[in-house]
Design a protein that fits this description.
The protein is α+β, with helices and mostly antiparallel strands. It has two domains: 12-81, no CATH class; 101-294, Jelly Rolls (Sandwich). The protein has helices at residues 13-20, 25-31, 36-42, 45-51, 56-61, 72-79, 126-132; strands at residues 83-85, 90-94, 101-106, 111-112, 121-125, 142-146, 152-159, 167-182, 189-195, 198-204, 219-224, 227-232, 245-246, 252-261, 268-275, 283-294. Strands 1, 2, 3, 5, 6, 8, 13, 14 and 16 form a nine-stranded antiparallel sheet that branches. Helix 1 (13-20) crosses helix 3 (36-42). The chain is elongated. The protein starts with 12 loop residues before the first helix and ends with a strand. It comes from Iris pallida (Sweet iris). InterPro entries: F-box-like_dom_sf, PP2-like. Pfam families: PP2.
Amino acid sequence: MEVAGSGFRDLPAGCIAHVISFTCPRDSCRSAVTSSEFRSASESDTVWDRFLPSDIRSILDRAVDPVAHSSKKELYFRLCDSILIDGGRMSFALEKLSGAKCYMLSARELNIVWGDTPTYWTWLSAESYRNEALSLSTGFPEVAHLLNVCWLEIRGKIDSRVLSPRTTYSAYLIYNLLKESSGFKYLKQKASVKVGANESTGFLSLQPAALRPRRGFRRRPRFLGMFFSPLEEETGAEGVARVPCLRADGWLEIELGEFFNNEGKDGEVEMYLMEVEGGYWKSGLTIQGIEVRPKKN
């Protein structure tokens, strides 16, 4: 009599699904191509329920629109595309490969100094901004557009408890800068991300490279009260400034800093961008929000 061989394929589907649930979403999808048994097990709710956040029900309750799904796997991949929550003031998404939680705070959720003063800032609806910015769309109902300020200060915060534990995160300012913007060419902006006793600080250059002065004009004076002081565009005593990247959606993003979220017990994550010392008036900046997502290696 032939004795059946032993191995994973001989295990009950529920047992295989239980084992796969201890891997990660990427490995689960990879296992699906090895055999029909693994494909069936890897698509079960047992597996994908493990990959969803433990507080997924409360997150879905905060969604602006219902998230339709027929299985936990479908729900997982639906959440890999961001959804609006909290009345459209924030968005939530899952990082596709790991399942780590990502949040974006809309401009309305940020503390923008002079943000409610029409002389300095204006608030544009998503539709009106899409028309003005040549089809550049935003997932939020409105964005903040800078008319003219000397004191630029933007702050945001998020509770570390809502983020994935044992994960290194980065915070990014999501913005756009008009070609006719002013006040950003020769000045660096200071940025910081702080959680608990740990703080990550650095200097940024919001001006995209295509809009910066030619290399032969890298040094320019800045006006400080009644005195002029030279400032290099990229480097100086503070070190090299971070520069923005163009996103797939057409917006610019620039890293404000990073932090490690251990068990989510360090309180609020505080983030800010500031430029208040240069003496230049600044205009042409549009803020969509601040995104907090896992840092890529």
